């Protein structure tokens, strides 16, 4: 089970003052030292946290995988194709949302995705689609020739008791279907040190992408330690 660490909220703190501290690329190095398998940054259309130069700055200094979260906005697509990170994760994006509120509607964007996919693949960029644990969306991801799906775990993370158990079963079934269709399965959103172990126990899931919980923990113990602790939590320790 791999861990991708999202460092967006390091940039959120920096943007609050409009200065240069804290530095996302230094955060990426600390996460790498803590055992992260990849670094995720979300270049939003409104540039609320990660800036264009952050993407290239991080790409230059890390030895692990760079995963660029992005919308289907043509300007953002152009930047991604120029930067050529190892991975991109295509997500829906609303200007007023605090965080990503749901999965990408692959069915509604099927024609566009079929056109874009070869452009990414020509540059050897692995393409992941951030989607809800829906059979319809997973099958559509297969039709557009995505490499990977990232299952949106927000509903699971926000639930408790029997409802959380139902959401976990949805994710488990979705992961199994995606694997049968030849898709790699990742997961993320809302996962923290208390709820991550059950998702990490699903055998079809290969990677988790987690940001807010790790950055929050890092305020008290440092980013390197926070990443190490998350990897331990993923193993049920």
Concise overview:
By secondary structure, the protein is α/β, with parallel strands linked by helices.
What does this structure look like?
- By secondary structure, the protein is of the alpha/beta class.
- The chain has a single domain (2-234), classed as TIM Barrel, CATH 3.20.20.70.
- The protein is built from eleven helices and eight strands.
- The chain has helices at residues 8-17, 24-33, 52-61, 74-83, 110-122, 135-143, 154-158, 161-180, 196-200, 212-221, 223-234, and strands at residues 2-6, 38-42, 65-70, 87-90, 126-131, 148-152, 184-188, 205-210.
- Strands 1-2-3-4-5-6-7-8 form an eight-stranded parallel beta barrel, surrounded by seven helices.
- Strand 4, helix 5 (110-122) and strand 5 form a beta-alpha-beta unit.
- Helix 10 packs across helix 11.
- The longest helix has 20 residues, at 161-180.
- The radius of gyration is 17 Å and the shape is globular.
- The relative contact order is 0.15.
What order do the strands of the largest sheet run in, or round the barrel if closed?
1-2-3-4-5-6-7-8
User: What coarse outline follows from CA principal-axis ratios?
Assistant: globular
So, CATH architecture? Alpha-Beta Barrel
Q: What would CATH call the homologous superfamily?
A: Aldolase class I
What are the low-pLDDT stretches, counting only 5+ consecutive residues below 50?
none
Output mean pLDDT.
96
Strand content: 15-25%
Number of strands: 8
User: Strand pairing plus helix content: what structural class?
Assistant: alpha/beta
Seen as an oligomer or otherwise, the chain set is: single chain
Portion of residues within helices: 40-55%
CATH fold descriptor: TIM Barrel
| Rg measurement, Å | 17 Å
Order of helices and strands: EHHEHEHEHEHEHHEHEHH
List the domain count as a whole number: 1
Distance linking N and C termini: 14 Å
């Amino acid at each position: 089970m791999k861990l991708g660490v999202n460092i967006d909220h390091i940039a959120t703190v920096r943007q609050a003052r409009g200065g240069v501290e804290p530095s996302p690329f230094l955060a990426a190095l600390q996460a790498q030292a803590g055992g992260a398998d990849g670094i995720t940054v979300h270049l939003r259309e409104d540039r609320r946290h990660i800036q264009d130069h952050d993407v290239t700055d991080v790409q230059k200094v890390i030895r692990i995988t760079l995963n660029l979260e992005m919308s289907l906005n043509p300007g953002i697509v152009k930047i991604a194709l120029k930067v050529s990170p190892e991975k991109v994760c295509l997500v829906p994006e609303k200007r007023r949302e605090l965080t990503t509120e749901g999965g990408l509607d692959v069915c509604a964007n099927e024609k566009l995705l079929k056109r874009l996919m070869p452009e990414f693949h020509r540059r050897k960029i692995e393409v992941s689609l951030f989607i809800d644990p829906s059979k319809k969306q997973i099958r559509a991801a297969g039709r557009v020739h995505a490499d990977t799906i990232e299952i949106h775990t927000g509903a699971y993370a926000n639930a408790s008791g029997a409802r959380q158990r139902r959401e976990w079963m949805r994710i488990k079934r979705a992961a199994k279907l995606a694997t049968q269709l030849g898709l790699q399965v990742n997961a993320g959103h809302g996962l923290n040190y208390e709820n991550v172990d059950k998702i990490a126990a699903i055998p079809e899931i290969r990677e988790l992408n987690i940001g807010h919980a790790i950055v929050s923990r890092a305020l008290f113990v440092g980013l390197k330690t926070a990443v190490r602790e998350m990897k331990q939590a993923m193993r049920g320790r």
